[in-house]
Amino acid sequence: MASDQVLPPLPQQFKLIQHHMRTAQEHEKRDPVVAYFCRLYAMQTGMKIDSKTPECRKFLVKLMDQLEIMKKQLGDNESITQDVVGNAHIENYAYKMFLYADTEDRAGRFHKNMIKSFYTASLLYDVLTVFGELTEENIQHRKYAKWKAAYIHNCLKNGETPNSGPLGMETEFENEDDVSLPQSSDSNNLVADMPSSDLSNIQTPTADHPPSNFSTIQIPPGAHAPANTPAEVPSTSVLPSTPTIQPGPQNIPIIDPSLYSIASQGEMHLTPEDYARAQKYCKYAGSALQYEDVGTAVENLQKALKLLTTGRE
Q1: What does the chain look like in DSSP terms, one character per residue?
Q2: Interacting residues of 90 by C-beta distance below 8 A, sequence separation 6+
Q3: pLDDT tens readout for residues 11-65
């Protein structure tokens, strides 16, 4: 696909987007939609950083060409042609990756794939900003995931056992951009030794003030990474055969009884924002079903039905 279009070397000024570009490359075949929006985010961010110096301008022009080619190749994909569908696709993928890493963390299984899944989830929450401002929940997910990736990496590098979940930390870091992972051209060496200065500015949350909403996260039974995870991509020569994942039992939300007997509201007028939110809930439900997440699908469909029939959420 777009990998046929060779990009110039990434200018030093664009160091901030190098991991987003790498994530795009890793998802080129596994999920072209993720690859497309990672590159779109990188292009938009690069334009803000430096669009005038010759090396930056050359890189951005080539990246734009690459995006145009991808857009034509994916022209029949609603995730590319409709923002609300693309938003749902990226958000659901990021959340599934976050859940996978969080489940591993809370079970005390600390490993490279889990660290990279946390960090990749944080990058994908960055990518969501191409659709507009992040919700407060997504801001907290991004902050927590980036912090967790750096914290667990540091612990393993120092031979320490990380604390699971948000507890046991001292102070919450204030600047997400201070967090970075090792620089390596080989994804298999993702957690190679990192200079201490890369993580020197990281501070961690306190037990008294854990990141919002994280101490009570409920991981649904059977939650697992997206079908095209693992997050770490080995070379093709050592790819193992993919095991068949048997979905675990799922807790299906109780259907709101009031939805069975909704009376006509007469001259109820829905705003364009109401229609957009209802459409978004339906897209979220469809995206959840791609991962066999029935509970999330039912929950979002109920929200859409209630909004369309009562004008309220």
Answers
A1: -GGGSPPPPPPGGGGGGHHHHHHHHHTTTT-HHHHHHHHHHHHHHHHHH-SSSHHHHHHHHHHHHHHHHHHHHTTT-HHHH-HHHHHHHHHHHHHHHHHHHHHHHHTT---HHHHHHHHHHHHHHHHGGGGSSPPHHHHHHHHHHHHHHHHHHHHHHTTPPPPSTTTT-----S-GGG------S-GGGTTS---GGGGTT-----SSSPSTTTTT--PPTT----TT--SS---GGGPPPPPPP-PPP--PPPP-GGGGGPPP-SS----HHHHHHHHHHHHHHHHHHHTT-HHHHHHHHHHHHHHHHHS--
A2: 33, 34, 37, 124, 127, 128, 131
A3: 999 999 999 999 999 999 999 999 999 999 999 999 999 999 999 999 999 999 9
pTM of the prediction? Answer: 0.62
